[in-house]
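As promised in the previous annual report, we have extended the structural survey to additional targets. Below is the entry for Copper-binding protein.
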Amino acid sequence: METRRTFVRGLGLAAGVALAGCSSGGGSDSGDDGDSGSGGDASDGGETESSDGGSGSEWTETSTVEMTDELAYEPKKIQVESGTTVTFENVGSIGHTVTAYEDKIPDGADYFASGGFDSLQAAKDGYSNGQEGNIPKGESYEVTLETTGTYEYYCIPHEMNGMVGTIKVV
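The corresponding structure token record, generated without further manual editing, is:
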């Protein structure tokens, strides 16, 4: 009986160590912590690591984002210089949108959404009334970002599937 208790106690300790290792995993993004002036990065870290493995936790320097049939923006996190035009290409067979979260773009930045909408509510309404803003397969959407900071965006019909992305403008 004593051996069994020792074994179970050992499992509990091992689980605690494993959980402690997981909880410090969010902190391993220390390169991002230094420049996370916005509150968006803190919530981004855990979600990105769990849903996308290691690749989602790094910033990719590119101005092209692919929208896929796997209901994902690839890469999920990009970094560009101010004044860069970012191109979203639909490489899949189903339609997607690019819709900025109004409260998760830098202060003073222009709002953006495929379909040319000037607010999040207008983009949602447009999509519900005839799929306005939908980017069909083989087509693309471009936006030029001037204001430095972090921009978070999503696909209206696939947000619940985790189709979200982040752009850091430096």
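Helices lie at 2-23, 30-33, 40-52, 120-128. Strands lie at 60-61, 64-67, 73-74, 77-80, 84-90, 99-100, 140-145, 149-154, 164-169. These points will be discussed at the next consortium meeting with the crystallography subgroup.
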